[in-house]
Protein 1
Amino acid sequence: MRFCPDEWMREIGIDLYDSERRDRVERFQWTQAKRLLALGQSVLIEWGTWGRSERDRLREEGRAAGARVELHYLTAPLDVLFDRIQRRAMENPPITRDDIERWARCMQPPDAEEMSLFDRANTFDQS
């Protein structure tokens, strides 16, 4: 099960910039995710876990629910990110290049030490 607050918020008509409601949606999603993990199901959290403390909490609580916990961190140049955001055109008001640059300065990318705390992703031979 994939949990993405943007999709839920858009579907029920909540402003994507409403941080109080976003927090409530994410708390609800995490409650549901932990229930699924406890049942042996797989979940994917697609949130902006920009800080190490957020990722630590999800990792620790996921493990407490008996799950393997993987971190998949994707990065792209700011120009590519801005282009993708412009093409999807989901946000109102639109995200500006200045927004992207400001948010990039707030991001705490995972380092090698943090990545070592997560389970390794399974790989599958496609041949």
Protein 2
Amino acid sequence: MKIVVTGARGKLGTAAVAYARQQGADVLEVDLVPYRIGDGPLGQYISADLSDLGQVYDVLDGADAVIHLAAIVSQRLVPSARTFQANTAITWNIFEAAARLNVPRVVSASSIQVNSTVTPRTPLRYEYLPLDEDHPVSPQDDYGMSKWVGEHLATMFTHHWGLSAVSFRFPWIATEDEFRELPLREEPRPEAALYAYVHIQDAARACYLAATATLPPRSHTVLFAAAPDSYLDMPAREYAQIAFPEAVIRPELTGYSSLVSSARAATIIGFRAERVLRPN
């Protein structure tokens, strides 16, 4: 199986490449970073500008799946218009090329920030917690909006071109070093994206599962992939009542459990986080 990973030199991209290769996949790494001596055999890594549709056609040709992680990864790294335009244009190009080249599966990184931005302009509000994929979304900035548009692009291309897609609303992705510093002890903040997290190895595995799972054609599936617990050192219900008093607290929110539900990912692609702070 040939999998193309965009953003292959980024935080999650590096882990996703390594995990897919461990499973025996033929992986083509794609990133804007130039090829360097020692980067491996020719044909395993290509430096490409994904804002150029022609280059996207080149790197996706012959792929069985694309794990699309290339993006400006947060707000306020560059001017907001550039973040929005770059992320949406690149995602359009990925789906355009995949559809016309008959690549059957696109997995892309959306973000919890379509629901829970870290730079809110108006107070964050939730109808209920834990958050799931059916909750109404309300992006408030360039980054979150670019990810929501990416989800709509996935819906359009899957419904009208026949491929299948998975969009992950990832929470904070913790590296091994970051993971060792948890749980976090601080005064709870509403804008902390619900203190949800996923270990980078679990996020990489989720990408591979989504790229290889049996899914119906013309389907777009939005999934959360989070650890089952919170990285805040405060019981989940207590935090929710302090930060979001208007939200309905559902019975499953107990102990230090996550305020984000990954139940749908468990059902559809068999994902359950393995690297967690508080194992059952």
